[in-house]
Each structure stands twice: as C-alpha cells, then as structure tokens.
C-alpha cells in the first residue's frame, strides 16, 4: 500500500473522531444537526476512499447510503421535527463541556490502547479503522449519556451507528446485505424514535428525559 | 560569521517590523469597518511619544513594578530572535527549541501577572487572575502541540522541524492540521485578540491584558507595548516556520536566497495579518467565562493530535 493512500485513509478516519468531538462540544441543537450531517459526510468520504483502495465496489453503495440517508434525509427530518416540536434550541447537558471532553479523550485513549493490543498482526489500515471506530461508538454512547434532550440522544445514537459502519469497512468482509439491512433498521429506529418523541412531548410538554425519570418515581 | 550576521539581522528585523505588523492589522480592521483608521506607522509614533513622556509611578510601587517592563521586553525579544523567520542558520539555532520558546513566553506572563498585582489596585488583580486562568489552559495546549510536532519530526528544535516540514516525507497528516488549528487558537488567546480579549477596549468587564498594564505610563508602557507587538510577530513567525516553512534560506545560502527568504517572510506576515483582521472583524468577543471552553477545544485538539500521531506511528 502506498504511503499517501494510507495517509488519506488515516486523515478521514481521524477526521471522523474529530467530528464526534465537535458534536460533544456543541450546545445548540441546529448546530448539532449540521455537525451530524458533516459526520455522515466524512464517513461517506472515508468509506468511498476505502472502496477505491480495496477495489470493493459494494463499499461505494455503503458510502452512498451513508451520504443520502445520514447526510441528508435524517438531518433534514430532525430539523423539521425540532421546528414542529417547538422546543428550546439549547442542549441541556448533564455535566459541563469540559468534563465531557476529558471523558471523551479518556475513551479515545482507551479504545486505541485496547484495539492496538487486540488486533496485533492484522492489516494496519484495519487496525486503525477498528481503533477509531470503537472510539466513535464510545463517543456516541457518551453523548447519549451526557445529554438530557431526547433529540440530541437520537443524534448520539445515529453517530454511534456511523462508527459501526467504519468498523465494517475496515474489516473488509461485511456482506452488502448486512450493511443494507443495518442501514434500514437504523432508518426504522429513527422513525420509531421520532413517533416516540412526539408522544413524550404530548405527554410531558418537554423532551427532557429527566421528566421520564420523575414520572417513573425515580426522582422527586 | 554568517550565522552571527543572520542572527543580528533577524534581531533587528523583528524589532523593526513588529509595530508595522500591528499597525497593518489595525489599519485593515479600520478599513473593513469603513473607517479611515490611523496610518500603518502609527504604532512607531505611539512608541516614540511614550518614550518621551514622563513616568508616573504609584506611591507603593516596588522595584518589581519598575523592572518588569524591561524584563518582559528582553525576554520576548530573545524568544522572537530564536524563531527562524527568513533563514534557519541562526547563531543560536541549537537553543531555538519550541519548549524553550514556550518557557520564555511563560516567564513573561509570570512577570506581567506579578507586575499587575504589585500596586494592589483591583483592576490589576482582575487582569492578573484572568491572564493566569487563560494561561493555565493555553500552556498545556501549547505543550501538546509541541509533543505532536516532536512525534512528527522527531525533534522540538525549530529549524529541524522546519526542514522536516519542507521535505516530502511529511505526507498528509491529520495530526498536523489539528496542531495548526490548536496553535492558531492558542495564539489568538495569548495575544489577547478578539474572541478572547479585545486589545482596543478599556471596559472593565472584559479587559484582560489592558487591565494588567493600566498603571503603566511613559517608557515602561512603551516597553510593554513593544513587547506585545513583538509577541504577535513571534506567534505569526512561529506558525509560519512550523507549518509553512517555504522559502526559508538554509544555512550558508547565497545572498539572493536570503533576500527571497525575507520576501517570503514578509508575504507570510501580510497574509497572516490580513487573515487576523478578517477573523477579528467577523467574530464577536466572547464572555470571559466561555474562554475556558474555547481553549479547552484547543487543548482537546492538541491531545487528539498527539493520540492520532501515536496511532499512526505505532502501526
């Protein structure tokens, strides 16, 4: 593999981790959605480049799915949803941005340390992709944990799935059928979550999930 | 011998050009706001005027208050003289280490914060405490940038890093880009430019750098002002030397190479000044309490760059 091709793949995968951090940093919902669209765009570019490098045409389909669904359809739908819900544009976080960032750095270090140990002897590109993919997944989970607003939790969930796609691309063995079915199950999950959001809003007049905790009697 | 000459030329050039760069940025900002603005040579006139004026000292000012301006100026000048601007073969190239430059700038900040608190006015205290808060985030970010560059180039010596960045070996690295963005953010914070601090205001709610130097007058103020001009020039030269080292004359080059190096440097200064003016006009000053978030992002970029570099090195 020549050096430049590897560098570009490294840059795109690293960029995906960076965009995950940008999502953690945002405190406005619309800005968060734009960054999420950017996340999908970087993912599509990364997958597309790997398709070119591995000479695997089915990965182009994956890149196309990522671009169309996650880069365009879902952000636009979420934009509309926020307008219809008429909710606060600010994201309510459970803990501050600083500690979240530090926790995120810890997670990235952890996933790199774990993955580089586990995958010793594998193809360098796959090793790196797996390390970054685990980081993106963990950052998505972190985002779901640290946000109170249900919409930003949805965004965290979707970015987590982007990490899975990156891992599947690097492993270069995932059949197209699995990839497409994952993409569609995400879409269906998105629809279900969307309906669910409107139900929460109808019931509690807010999409702050701490209202659910109160309803269940877990917090006074 | 040529090293000695280059070193002296550099020391003279940074001192002569520093006020011009600040004047250029001010003029451009004024033009962007559709004002006429003072001439680009106004900072020189300001300095001359301040040097001629009498010094007014507070009654309880100690020796530290009087000595600090000269120490700050001297330390900043040394730091600015170490950064390769138009040629790499400087006499003190062996000591021109990124960490040494950071340490020199750190000591100027220490002196300035002490001088701000020396008289015991409340503004000086506010300024010092804010400056130190900003520094406590900017310095680790700066050190992480140094680590990233050390991992990339295998050295923290500025001329070695510049040589490496000029060679085709460097390739395309996302870490270097992140380090560049982080360094620009740190430079904005360190030079008290707009999103962090407004250099042109005396509004007590927002000022940081100006609050510390509020009690200074006459030649002391001239020294501090000149040091802050030098610091801006130093950061621009540092960024140019680390990330755009094109045109730097190698040691023992011909006179034309030196001339081209100087022309390239002037070009880089002009580009950086233009970008700074555009950025400052386009953005609003942020609240002091949001500064930690801004610098936290720089710190995070530095840390991420180091981690990514570590991954690609260990593969």
Model description:
The complex is a heterodimer of chains A (220) and B (315). Chain A is an all-alpha fold and 220 residues long. Helix content of chain A is 82%, strand content 0%. Chain A has one domain (3-216). The longest helix of chain A has 29 residues, at 57-85. Helix content of chain B is 71%, strand content 0%. Chain B is globular. The model of chain B has no long low-confidence stretch (mean pLDDT 89). The A-B interface holds A 3-4, 7-8, 10-11, 14-15, 17-18, 21, 25, 97-98, 101, 104-105, 108-109, 112, 116, 124, 127-128, 131 and B 171-175, 177-178, 292-293, 296-297, 300-301, 303-304, 307-308, 310-312, 314-315.
Summarize the structure.
Chain A has 220 residues and is mainly alpha-helical. In chain A, 82% of the residues lie in helices and 0% in strands.
List the helices and strands and how they pair.
The complex is a heterodimer of chains A (220) and B (315).
Chain A: H1 3-25, H2 29-54, H3 57-85, H4 97-118, H5 124-146, H6 150-171, H7 176-204, H8 210-216
Helix pairs in contact in A: 1-2, 1-4, 1-5, 2-3, 2-6, 3-6, 3-7, 4-5, 5-6, 6-7
Chain B: H1 2-32, H2 42-52, H3 63-82, H4 98-118, H5 122-153, H6 158-166, H7 174-190, H8 209-212, H9 218-243, H10 255-282, H11 291-314
The major pleated sheet of chain A works out as: none
- Helix tally of chain A equals 8
Radius of gyration of chain A: 18 Å
Determine the fraction of residues in helical runs of chain A and give it as a percent range. over 70%
How many domains make up the 3D coordinates of chain B?
1
Biggest beta sheet summary of chain B: none
Jot down its keywords:
heterodimer, A: 220 residues, mainly alpha, B: 315 residues, 71% helix, 0% strand
